[in-house]
Amino acid sequence: MRAHSLVLGALFSLAALPFTATAVADSGPAHTASHATMVHSPSAALPTRPGQEMFGTVSEIVGLLEASPNTHWSRVNIPALRKHLIDMNEVALNAKADITRIRNGVRIRVTGRGRTLDAIHRMLAMHGRTMDGQFGWHVSDEPLKEGDLLTVVSEDPAQVAKIQGLGFMGIMVYGTHHAMHHLAIARGDMAY
Ligand SMILES: [Cu+2]
Hints:
With 192 residues, this protein is an alpha+beta fold. 53% of the residues lie in helices and 15% in strands. It has helices at 2-16, 29-40, 53-67, 78-93, 115-131, 157-173, 178-187; strands at 96-102, 105-111, 137-143, 147-154.
């Protein structure tokens, strides 16, 4: 049992070293010095992968809030951001999207059940409000019993082609302001 723990400990120590530490078997003062330098060097490799998208997104937002002198922690609402990120997951993975091409755009019937249905109602209502009038698009959202009916049209033939090519997910991600919404939700500037 003790030997097993020692082996595990040794493996863990090796795994924690950067790949450049090939002189593990070396001994003597030279190795001791380089090892000390490596451990304390600011350039020593450290892991950065968050492991999971929710952890990564929330971690980045918390970092931005901490770095900003304008953050009012009494207003900060990370639970609202978490709720929105779960909604995004539901809409992206579990919602059913039936798309119909109409003369000047698309009509998309987005449906789901339970937690997915709640997410569809919240996300599509928000997207309808936010995206209407942008890029020369007219966006309208109609809540249904089993989902939402999203209609996206344009008078510009180039935009019509784009809307039809983007389809449901492309329309949902289109534009560059979505990540800013996450910060606004987290800062308490936007109800969700
Ligand atoms: Cu979002």
